[in-house]
């Protein structure tokens, strides 16, 4: 049978719900024709379907398939997006994802998605100045932004604006052994993060109940009293949500810092979390919230027990490398280096 025949069999099997047969036929297709991009895309979609959680083998093979697709057809933004999501969400390859999205910028220099994804990764890793530069470039280059991306950009902008007002030394950097953030984490190791709903109930619900009981005495009966009571409740809810959000960030900051350390280990392949913290309730809670592929990969990293070297430096891709694709050439270093690991 020809490659196209196997591909048609794969489509038919997928439509009939026979996903294993569809995957087998798609693999036969690329074995005969390694440049069949649609078959590679089917393999990626079947191994890592949207909304599902593949294991580490499936996620790795899906990433390979996405790489094949973008190598054959660099304009396939959907394949770039899926590959980037697999790297970050499933495998925890944050540094590799930065390079992946920069390669996407070279292939599609006028797409805004790579910049937004790079900004998100840098922000999650605590590299706020670099993240601000990425977000600024989004507007400097006047790229089109989809409506579905506006909420994400707004959230990133607020986060980065807040970080700009803070002392840079307070930003938790997992690769720094002596950072004060580790002390705060150790103080919270036996507690799981507090939910925002619980904090709202504890801080706001009592006031709402009190307002309901005293509203008649304050505003009287009738439509006027009803409207004033409703307005008071609405204002209380809005203020309560604002207070709860700030309290949530403050109370759970050690958990967010430990989550960053977990992501850093998955990204770098090196161990930075002390054993007493790794055996804690907080670590177990955060670890269990990651997808199976992420957990399996991190377990392998922990088993390897590779310590971060003394002269370790994090390297970022050349974020201006895409300019060559649009006719702008700038000279400069290919990589940006961040602060090295601090030994005691």
Can you walk me through this structure?
By secondary structure, the protein is mainly α. The protein folds into two domains: 3-169 and 318-337, Alpha Horseshoe (Serine Threonine Protein Phosphatase 5, Tetratricopeptide repeat); 181-304, no CATH class. It contains 17 helices and two strands. Strands 1-2 form a two-stranded antiparallel ribbon. The chain is globular, with a radius of gyration of 25 Å. 29% of the residues are buried. Mean pLDDT is 87; it is low at 329-344.
Could you give a short description of this structure?
With 344 residues, this protein is mainly alpha-helical. It folds into two domains: 3-169 and 318-337, Alpha Horseshoe (Serine Threonine Protein Phosphatase 5, Tetratricopeptide repeat), CATH 1.25.40; 181-304, no CATH class. The protein has helices at residues 3-15, 19-32, 37-47, 56-72, 77-90, 94-107, 113-124, 128-140, 147-164, 181-187, 196-203, 205-219, 222-251, 253-268, 275-278, 281-288, 292-304; strands at 315-316, 336-337.
What keyword list fits this structure?
2 strands; mainly alpha; Serine Threonine Protein Phosphatase 5, Tetratricopeptide repeat; disordered C terminus; globular; 344 residues; two-stranded antiparallel sheet; 17 helices
Compile the SSE list and pairings.
Blueprint: H1 3-15, H2 19-32, H3 37-47, H4 56-72, H5 77-90, H6 94-107, H7 113-124, H8 128-140, H9 147-164, H10 181-187, H11 196-203, H12 205-219, H13 222-251, H14 253-268, H15 275-278, H16 281-288, H17 292-304, E1 315-316, E2 336-337
Antiparallel strand pairs: 1-2
């Amino acid at each position: 049978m020809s490659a196209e025949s196997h591909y048609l069999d794969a489509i038919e099997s997928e439509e009939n719900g026979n996903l294993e047969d569809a995957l087998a036929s798609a693999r036969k297709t690329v074995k005969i024709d390694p440049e069949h991009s649609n078959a590679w895309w089917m393999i990626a979609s079947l191994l890592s379907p949207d909304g599902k959680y593949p294991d580490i083998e499936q996620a790795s093979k899906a990433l390979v398939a996405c790489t094949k697709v973008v190598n054959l057809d660099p304009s396939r933004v959907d394949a770039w997006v899926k590959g980037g999501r697999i790297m970050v969400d499933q495998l925890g390859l944050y540094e590799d994802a930065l390079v992946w999205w920069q390669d996407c910028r070279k292939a599609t220099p006028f797409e805004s998605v790579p910049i937004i994804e790079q900004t998100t990764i840098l922000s999650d890793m605590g590299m706020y100045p670099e993240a601000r530069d990425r977000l600024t470039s989004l507007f400097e280059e006047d790229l089109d932004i989809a409506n579905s991306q506006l909420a994400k950009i707004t959230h990133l902008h607020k986060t980065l604006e807040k970080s700009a007002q803070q002392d840079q030394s307070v930003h938790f950097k997992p690769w720094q052994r002596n950072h004060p953030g580790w002390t705060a984490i150790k103080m919270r190791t036996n507690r799981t993060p507090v939910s925002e709903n619980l904090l709202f109930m504890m801080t706001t619900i009592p006031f709402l109940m009190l307002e309901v009981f005293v509203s008649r005495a304050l505003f009287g009966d009738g439509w006027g009293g009803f409207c004033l009571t409703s307005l008071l409740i609405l204002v209380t809810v809005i203020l309560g949500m604002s207070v709860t959000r700030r309290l949530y960030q403050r109370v759970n900051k050690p958990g967010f810092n430990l989550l960053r350390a977990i992501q850093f280990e998955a990204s770098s392949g090196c161990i930075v979390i002390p054993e007493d913290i790794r055996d804690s309730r907080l670590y177990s809670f955060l670890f269990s919230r990651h997808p199976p592929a992420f957990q399996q990969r991190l377990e392998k990293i922990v088993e390897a027990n590779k310590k971060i070297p003394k002269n370790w430096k994090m390297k970022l891709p050349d974020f201006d490398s895409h300019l060559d694709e649009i006719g702008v050439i700038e000279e400069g270093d290919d990589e940006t280096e961040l602060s090295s690991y601090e030994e005691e």
